[in-house]
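Q: Can I see a sequence and its folded structure?
A: Here is a first one.
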Amino acid sequence: MPQAPTKRYWTVRSSSIHNRGIFARCDVPYDVPIIEYVGEKITKAESLRRGEALVEKSKKTGGAAVYVFTLNQKYDIDGAKGRNPARYINHSCAPNCEAYIIRGRIWIYSLREIKAGEELTYNYGFDVDTWDEHPCRCGSDRCVGFIVEEKQWPKLLRKMEKLQRDKEKERAKAASSGVNGVKTKKAATTKKSAGKKVAKKAGKK
């Protein structure tokens, strides 16, 4: 079980990714525990209830922060409760940290050597089925545009490609309908009557 770090590696400040973030206040070695993710231990049922409440809040206010972290098959940790600065760690598609669950506790470890001043990030690991609800703003060269677990990126790509194809089909269909409509009007309408129609529309405005 990891020991609490002998020195404080982190500090909280404004982030270009999202609101506040956690930054390295000094050089961080590779593979060391940086900070523990703490909070209220809740059942899956309570976790679901709080999640649904946050969804409703998001619909009304346009945003709601989610700090619930999966602990095991029975329990989650709600990091919004109590003092938990680790909740400010932002997502990145090219993270320098990883979260590990060790003996019922969640620790944030460094994935590599981190220079002082770098923002600490990890992949939130959201499911691809809700990809369009979680846009990513990490700005890394590896950013896929949405907060999704890396092993699900191929599935995300397929979903995005399908969505793009569907949009192109809709545009093509709309364009085809528009062209057909114009041809029909030209065939059945004289220049004079067409001018009257335009005048009437302009008058309504």
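Q: Show me another, different protein.
A: A second, unrelated one:
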Amino acid sequence: MREWVYDCWNHIMNAEVNPLRHIPDLHARHMIMQVLAFMWSSVFAIAIADSIMAFGISAIVHVLLVAAVVITVATFKTAEYKPEAFTWRKDGYHSHGRGRMYTIYRDRKGNAHKVELPDGDPGGEHE
């Protein structure tokens, strides 16, 4: 009996054993398995909870969770294979979009006064 359950499980859930094994693209196989899993989980959710609302909330939360995982993995893979994608400024660390040529300081009495910045000053506090 135990072996029969194991074989039934593999024939349905294992993409290397079930008929989807004939699809050569692993990504396509995985996506089809995900769609089938979503379909079956929705059928069981509606049958058990007897509510479309319960399924809707659960589906939205699951989609958000999967999207967060996908974004995280994509960010990690980009950092691993294309770290230059995170270098937004090629000329070092500077204040982005600096349009001012002066800064405002206050004297000991609290009065504000304008202080001109040098022409080559890149701005920012990390120089």
